[in-house]
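Ticket #4471: structure output looks truncated?

Reporter: J.K.
Steps to reproduce: submitted the chain below (369 residues) through the standard prediction queue, then opened the result file.
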Amino acid sequence: MQHFILIFATKIRLFVLVFISIMICFSCTVSSSQTEKQKENSNNQSDSILIPTSKIIDLDSTKTDSKKEDKNDPYYDGEKAGWIYGDSNYQEPKEVIPTFTPRKVETKIVWKVFEEGLEYAEFDAPIKSNIADSKISVLRIDMKFFKLDLISSLEKISEKSFEKKGTKTAPKWAKAEKLITAFNASMFQMDGMSAGYMKDFEFVNNPNFTEKYNSIAAFNLKEEAKNKNLPEFQIIDMDNSCGNWQETIKNYNTLIQNLRLVDCRQKNRWGNQKRYWSMVVLAEDMNSNVLFIHTRSPYNVQTYNDMLLKSELNIKKIMYLEGGPETSFFIKYGDSVISKQGSYETNFNLNDNNHHFWEIPNVLGVRKK
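Returned output as attached by the reporter:
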């Protein structure tokens, strides 16, 4: 009996050893396969470790379309860059270090009036960058004559009225939604959700308030709030420094949370950092006009805020929208087309070589009332 038990125990040990050997071999194969996959991915994608969460995008959605765009189309997206669009012959441009030179410029802003309530201006920044044109572009909107619309790809998906994933470039959003303008509505996450709280009437894009995002853009007054003498648009500080923000936002249908740049006391809230971006920001002036402001040339945020506060724009508050190559500033009014992208971003795209609108999930558009 002991002999049979010994034989049985030996067979069990043998079986266990064989099973362990098989599992080790399988693990090595999987590990090798994953390593090869990681190598392949590292060759095809930019280093996502250096990209903030709100900057990670699905690179598959940005590959060159087989159908070439007509450069004379007013909704043309611009020239595509190989490092994003998979051109194997493309050589990544050399990194450029921004330098800045103060200069004397014309301080008077000359406005081009599209019609009453809708004006555009472009002026030289008082600090010249060695990258791009050092110009500041502004669209000024009087909310008595125009209104803002928030368009979200996630809402389009829920309505099942989109092609593919629903993301589009700013020009294509403007064309599809019949908007006069299309600008970034906010920074975003990979799934199309805004980086901060975002809602539009009954649709909620992101239900969570983000810590340290201390501004909310509020518009589309609720019916019951229209007799309260509230502005149709305002940027609200979230620290109660100029009123109870939790109560104030209850009066508006559309809310977008993002980084506060200039507060309700016209104080620049940004520290001096050696980080530089192309940028588009949202501002409110002393006359309750809405301002969309764009620069392709990279500045640190503190310097940019100071330049805007010292300008004739009569700035009251500023909220960040987006920076880097995703920055989108598109206007089409009649035959006039103003089409501007961003490019430079510290730790991500250290050059001025992006000349193509990126697909973005959320846009702010302007319509005639």
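Triage note (M.O.): checked the attachment and the full token line is present. The longest helix spans residues 2-44.
Status: closed, working as intended.
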